[in-house]
């Protein structure tokens, strides 16, 4: 398996067709096709097929693609590390985080990191755990900060817990259900929840079911913290929010906790990275700053 074969194969996935991939790599289509054929011979399996819908990856091709993306990302990071050792510049760090981290920790951490490493190019993205895992596994992220149950993560990822996060049912100030004390009183309310795999909302519903308590009958599935908070502020929709955000003067404005009992156990917020892959010299200081922030919180 050679470098040019791996790059050709991966570029086909990025470009969506052999023609576009050949153009991106400044190769002829015949040269690119030859590299793909040689790669298939090397691994002993058909990796992609052409159809009227374009290029489609076989099951073997999909498995190999996740590994080639990671391999190319690691090689790029290695080149970058060598360049930095030789006095070069332009180090890049890609980090994703849950909304809680972006709201509470990022401003303070970013100010400090800018002073420590002004030449580093930061690529920041926000998302919940389910959307971060593929990017981590393919090496597109140096690390992520997310709320998770470590037992639900793929073996390839390691989770370093930073703090426990308590989440609470909440609604707008003056909500008709503001005085509710039991989950049964909230049964008929409409909820806006991030119901993706491993989320606090999914854990909430599973916990309610396990406790024999009333589950939400109507839910709006939402993966945007901004959309969720605005629906909660401007309508009678209820949400399930980290307590630390409800206590934030800006995010929590116009929202109030509902004093419903009992509550599910907290979940852990932690740093997630590839197992066995050390952070780069540019990413490690940033990860350290985030860890220090939450351990003092």
UniProtKB/TrEMBL annotation:
Molecular function, one GO term: DNA binding
Domain HTH lysR-type residues, every copy: 1-58
Entry-linked Pfam families: HTH_1, LysR_substrate
GO CC terms, sorted: cytosol
Record flagged with keyword Transcription: yes
Keyword entries, A-Z: DNA-binding, Transcription, Transcription regulation
Gene3D superfamilies per UniProt: Periplasmic binding protein-like II, Winged helix-like DNA-binding domain superfamily/Winged helix DNA-binding domain
Keyword Transcription: yes
Family: Belongs to the LysR transcriptional regulatory family.
Name the record gives this protein: LysR family transcriptional regulator
Originating organism: Comamonas testosteroni TK102
């Amino acid at each position: 398996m050679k470098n040019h074969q791996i790059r050709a194969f991966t570029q086909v996935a990025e470009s969506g067709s052999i023609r576009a991939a050949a153009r991106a790599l400044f190769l002829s289509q015949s040269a690119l096709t030859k590299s793909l054929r040689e790669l298939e011979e090397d691994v002993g399996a058909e990796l992609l097929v052409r159809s009227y819908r374009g290029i489609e990856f076989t099951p073997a091709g999909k498995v190999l693609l996740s590994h080639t993306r990671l391999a190319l990302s690691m090689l790029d990071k290695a080149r970058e590390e060598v360049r930095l050792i030789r006095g070069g510049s332009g180090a890049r760090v890609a980090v994703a985080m849950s909304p809680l981290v972006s709201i509470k920790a990022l401003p303070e951490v970013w100010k400090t990191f800018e002073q420590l490493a002004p030449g580093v190019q930061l690529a920041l993205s926000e998302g919940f755990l389910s959307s971060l895992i593929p990017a981590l596994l393919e090496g597109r992220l140096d690390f992520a900060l997310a709320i998770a149950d470590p037992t639900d993560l793929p073996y390839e990822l390691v989770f370093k817990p930073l703090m426990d996060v308590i989440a609470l049912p909440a609604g707008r100030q003056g909500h008709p259900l503001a005085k509710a004390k039991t989950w049964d009183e909230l049964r008929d309310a409409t909820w806006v929840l991030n119901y993706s795999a491993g989320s606090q909302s999914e854990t909430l519903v599973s916990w309610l079911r396990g406790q024999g308590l009333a589950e939400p009958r109507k839910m709006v599935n939402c993966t945007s913290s901004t959309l969720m908070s605005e629906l909660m502020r401007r309508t009678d929709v209820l949400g399930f929010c980290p307590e630390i955000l409800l206590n934030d003067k800006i995010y929590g404005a116009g929202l109030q906790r509902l004093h419903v009992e009992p509550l599910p156990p907290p979940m852990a917020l932690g740093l997630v990275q590839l197992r066995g892959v050390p952070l780069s010299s540019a990413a490690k200081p940033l990860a350290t700053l985030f860890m220090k922030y939450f351990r003092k919180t």
